[in-house]
Amino acid sequence: MHILAIETSCDETALALLEIRGGATAPKVRVVKSLISSQIAIHAPFGGVVPNLAKREHLKNLPILYRQIFSKRQKAKGKENFVPDLIAVTVGPGLEPALWTGINFAEQIYRELKIKNSQLQLVGANHLEGHLYSFLLSQKRGMINNQLSMIELFPAIALIVSGGHTILIKMDSLVKWRMLGETRDDAVGEAFDKVARILDLLYPGGPEVEQLATRGNAEAISFPRPMLHDKSYDFSFSGLKTSVLYYSRDRKLKTNDVKLKADIAASFQAAAIDVLTAKTARAVKEFEARTILLSGGVAANSYLRNAMRVMSRKLSVNFFVAPKKFNTDNAAMIGVAGYFARLRKTRSPLRANGILSV
Ligand code: KG4
Ligand code: ZN
Question: What's this model's pTM, rounded to 2 decimal places?
Fold first, then answer.
């Protein structure tokens, strides 16, 4: 099946073309093209995403990326553009004005392409499911399938860590799962972004904090590990962020205190990641899981990837995370989510839903 996917939930306009075969038991995903137009430079001066600016940029970028995605493919393959069998568009969660731009655009191209392919379908995709399924994008020529059958992967514990969400999920198969816990306040990516602001770093803060942390001592400051020993699988990162704020204020942090800032970044990062790995490990043990799946923008953090990899080795379970370019928002993952939404026949209505859950 050929899929055209569209993502506009936040500050990235993204389009992708994919080919997926194999259904829910042996999916093989080939990303033909994945284009992302980032709005980071536009939102950076405001220290966060401005919804109406995001909408304006999506409206501008969607037709540009659309032309690009087909013309490049045509050139590369020297043949006719393929007409997709499925268009998948993010319907939520995210910023509703931004989501609508993607949905309206999808409906417009659906009407145009339907003339060429009467079988064409249009599905709404859940952004969080996109992250959840993104590990399938780590297949190198179907590597996951060659190494393990999908049945051997489950049960799996999936951790989604993004700017808006921190969710722990138990998956019984590619189409059946349930949420074990989520954050009660800030998402972990949000905590990274807020700590970055405290430390005078640029937006988005995650990569900046990670970069600065490489020069710091993770044991210099013992920040709290919120809810580490709590019996639930919920998280809380707002108190940790506040501790960083008070610690920095108490020391009257100055712009040129690079060593102190690096220690704060490293110690904060270690505290957040300790909680994420400990809760994931506990879920793996409790549910006798065979696999850990890590996804979402914060999964691009090398320290977190390593911590999860080390922990999965200790527990003798598989560990999968997509290449970094598919951790942060992209449309390839939306194509995969759309494919499975169609298989499950649980389609989301084509209406923006800012608070859609998994
Ligand atoms: O998944 P994503 O691109 O967008 C949402 O769905 O929210 O995640 C964005 C979040 C931001 O909070 C960003 O700071 C964080 O992911 N992030 C990172 C890293 N790269 C992105 N956090 C920590 N370390 C990173 N290297
Ligand atoms: Zn995301």
Answer: 0.96
Tell me if 164 CB under 6 Å of ligand 1. Answer: yes
CB 102 less than 6 A from any atom of ligand 1 = no
Spatial contact of 17 and 4, defined as CB atoms under 8 Å apart: yes
Angle between helix 238-250 and 258-286 (nearest 10): 160
> pLDDT per residue over 153-179, tens digit each?
999 999 999 999 999 999 999 999 999
Distances in Å between the Cα of 121 and the Cα atoms of 37, 106, 216, 345 are 25, 11, 51, 12
- For residues 118 and 151, the answer to whether their CB atoms sit within 8 Å is no
Site to probe by mutation for ligand 1, drawn from 166, 268, 298 as the one with most ligand atoms within 8 Å of Cβ, is: 298
The secondary structure of 274-321 as a DSSP string is: HHHHHHHHHHHHHTT-SEEEEESGGGG-HHHHHHHHHHHHHTT-EEEE
Q: Is the pLDDT of residue 343 over 70?
A: yes
Write down how long the chain is: 358
Q: Given this model, what pLDDT does residue 73 score?
A: 56
> Is 92 a pocket residue for ligand 1 (Cβ < 6 Å)?
no
Cβ 5 vs Cβ 88: under 8 Å: yes
Are residues 33 and 69 in contact, defined by beta-carbon separation less than 8 angstroms?
A: yes
As given in the structure block, the two tokens for residue 212 are 């600065």
DSSP 323: -
- pLDDT tens for 174-233 read 999 999 999 999 999 999 999 999 999 998 899 999 999 999 999 999 999 999 999 999
Q: Are 295 and 158 in contact (CB under 8 A)?
A: yes
What pLDDT does residue 48 have?
85
Q: How far apart are CA 97 and CA 90, in angstroms?
A: 12
Within 10 Å of residue 263's Cβ, how many Cβ atoms?
Answer: 21
pLDDT at 144 over 70: no
Q: What percent of the chain has pLDDT over 70?
A: 94
3-state secondary structure of 108: helix
| Residue 170 tokens, joined | 């138990």
User: What is the C-alpha R_g of the chain?
Assistant: 20
CA distance linking residue 168 with residue 159, whole number of Å: 5
- Using DSSP's 3-state secondary structure scheme, residue 98 falls into helix
